[in-house]
Structure formats: C-alpha cells, structure tokens
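User: Sorry, folds how?
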Amino acid sequence: MSLSRRTILRGIGALPLLAGDFRLPAFAETAASVSEIPPMLFVHGNGDHAAVWITTLWRMESNGVPRERMFAINFTDPLARADDKVAQPDRSSTEDQRRELSEAIAALKRKTGAARVALVGNSRGGNAIRSYIKHGGSNDISHAVLCGVPNHGVFAWDEGLGNEFNGRGPFLQGLNEGDSEVVPGPAFLTLRSDGLDKYAQPDGRFIGKPGTPTGITSDGPALNGATNLVLGAVDHARPRFIRAPFARSTVLSPVASPTGSASQRNRP
C-alpha cells in the first residue's frame, strides 16, 4: 500500500507539536538569560509542514537557544480554500487555522509553564498568528515574528473577496482595520524582501494574470505599528531560512511592543 504525503502528514499531525529531544550544549548563556527566552512556536505556511523549520531550529540552537524552548506546529490541512467560507476537501479555513494554532499554544503553555510564548510564522502561518492575536489571544503572546507574510494580500481585487489572500476581502480587512495594524501587547516584527517576493508584486504574472495590477507592492508585508525589516532581494521563502532574521538579539530580546513603524535593511 502506498502512502500519500497527506496521509503521512496526518499521522504526524496527531502530535500537535514537533519537539525533538536532541539538543546541543547552549554556550555563552547564563541561567538568567535563558529564563528570559520565551518558548517559541514556529508556524508554517500554505501547503507546508513543521519540518521546514528544522534548519532554523538548528541555527537558533547554535546561538544558545535551548532546544526544549522551540516547537513547530503541523496544521492538519495546510492549504487555504479558494473561498474561505466554502468547504473544500483537504483544505482549511482561517477559522480552522486559528483553532489549531490556539490548541497548540495552549499545549505549549501547559508543557513549559510559561505565561506567554513567541510566535514565528511564514507566509500563511502569519495570517493564523495575526488572527489568533486579534481575536483575544494577545495576552498569551510576547513576540510575533512574521516572515514574508502577505499582510495586505497577494492581490487586492473586487473579485474573489472570499479568498484569504485578497487584501480587499473581509479577513485581511478585519486584521488591518484601524490606524495601527497590530494589537497592543505583543512585540511585532515583519521581515520582507526588497522586491523579489513573488507574492508581493505589483503585476499579477505570478498568480496567473500577467499585465493585471495586483494593488500590492513589495511593502505589502509591512504593518503599521510593527518594526519592519527589509532583508534585501530575497525570495518569498528565504525570510524564514536565512541566518540574519533569527539572530537571538533580533527575535528574543525581552523588549516592549513597538509603538511606531521602522525600516531597516539587513544583508542576508
């Protein structure tokens, strides 16, 4: 009998958190500094799975972050629906994602005894993170790091308003309403490409509509009220893979939530 990728992932998904027991010695760390590091939950994107974060976990561990403080979620059905309100086989709604993320956060808090956790999300994973925080979860979260997340949509059109990635649709409009696009409490950080992210392009060629303006620019992943970093000409996935974004000083320093928007360029 052959096993499909989905069957395998469903089996893995029975364990809500991917957390290996293996670890390397944490160097240049004191007991006090380790205690300040919040547990971290890594949240994958559309059609992905927890294993995409393995290299990131290794890199963070090599910078002194204890392995037992890092976890990653496997969503049951990682692909988004064409219309968020219309059921599709093996696809999930924004509410499905928020519910599974909520369960994983609760499990992580029970496991570690922490009052708040840090969330690191790539692409669609950032939608789930923002939805969880927006709908009453802000007190549970210390940091929200959003890597290549289409915070204002992949496109902004009057057609397909039910699509989760439509910047004019009710889902993203709800997340972005108000002068500040972040919820008070957690420290928000966005990481984005300087023009090479195919899902933050002014032309629709990467979504099958060449020559059609998307209404989105390379600034689409930035959020008013967050600290917004530009990583250079990197593609959609690299904000979660390259070393620069996950330096311990950037992600884990216990800082207050920023009150304004900043821009900074880092080399990958």
Confidence is low (pLDDT under 50) at residues 1-32, 245-268.
